[in-house]
């Protein structure tokens, strides 16, 4: 039977409703309340301080999606649903909460306006993303947790798939809470590290590094990668989920500043999603729509586009190392 071309359109339309139900489950913490056993809709509503009939309607949708199931006592959480509990291994609650955050959701909904003007509607309404996060600490906590959890697969992957043998000093530029750097240092005891980021971020990064038992091997430095001569010296620089936040001109500034700080034998590992050069389906294309909506001129890039950026920055693309979770390490060396 030939597929109805309209099916794909309707699936996208109804997908918004399904996500809204999932966002409700994450925000009201259904999984944590249901973890210890089934509850009726009324009981769950009482625990969430929510409207009982509305909770019952959302539970029906979630049951159809496979995140809860109905039982004689009411509803119980499924294995998939447990991924929306904060303390579950591989928890995705912060990812759902971030996309459902009011400003984020609003920015995605205004993508047509962004495309028409070429200026992010999110930025027009709320200012730059990182400025917004600085002014909204609750959203910043969700964002930081999401970035940490998102990075775990390719943080471990980078430590396992890239050879850090002989590297004395790794500088994680814009490294957030240091999740990638700690994975690298844990796997390579002879290597020392530097976490380099803004003053808003460094305190939580310092705590995470101390908690990992790596404070004696890792220095935390406050700074801005747009400031020439401000980047610490190192043998290998990690740029993870950084370059995709910036347009080509700003990306060249960042890369050029690192190029000026590194030795002739140094390397930069740009950890990002690398899009195919053709129009093949790829999860990174979804990410690119988010970058367009929220940042505007930030973007995911193809291998060819990375090669062009590097050449403008006095660097050469040496190799691309495939990592888990759709990420890659674009390895750059000085020309």
TrEMBL record:
<dbReference type="Pfam" id="PF00891">
    <property type="entry name" value="Methyltransf_2"/>
</dbReference>
<dbReference type="InterPro" id="IPR036388">
    <property type="entry name" value="WH-like_DNA-bd_sf"/>
</dbReference>
<keyword id="KW-0949">S-adenosyl-L-methionine</keyword>
<dbReference type="InterPro" id="IPR016461">
    <property type="entry name" value="COMT-like"/>
</dbReference>
<dbReference type="GO" id="GO:0046983">
    <property type="term" value="F:protein dimerization activity"/>
</dbReference>
<dbReference type="GO" id="GO:0008171">
    <property type="term" value="F:O-methyltransferase activity"/>
</dbReference>
<feature type="active site" description="Proton acceptor">
    <location>
        <position position="244"/>
    </location>
</feature>
<feature type="domain" description="O-methyltransferase C-terminal">
    <location>
        <begin position="111"/>
        <end position="314"/>
    </location>
</feature>
<dbReference type="Pfam" id="PF08100">
    <property type="entry name" value="Dimerisation"/>
</dbReference>
<dbReference type="InterPro" id="IPR036390">
    <property type="entry name" value="WH_DNA-bd_sf"/>
</dbReference>
<dbReference type="InterPro" id="IPR001077">
    <property type="entry name" value="COMT_C"/>
</dbReference>
<dbReference type="GO" id="GO:0032259">
    <property type="term" value="P:methylation"/>
</dbReference>
<feature type="domain" description="O-methyltransferase dimerisation">
    <location>
        <begin position="10"/>
        <end position="84"/>
    </location>
</feature>
<dbReference type="InterPro" id="IPR029063">
    <property type="entry name" value="SAM-dependent_MTases_sf"/>
</dbReference>
<dbReference type="InterPro" id="IPR012967">
    <property type="entry name" value="COMT_dimerisation"/>
</dbReference>
<keyword id="KW-0489">Methyltransferase</keyword>
<protein>
    <submittedName>
        <fullName>Methyltransferase</fullName>
    </submittedName>
</protein>
<keyword id="KW-0808">Transferase</keyword>
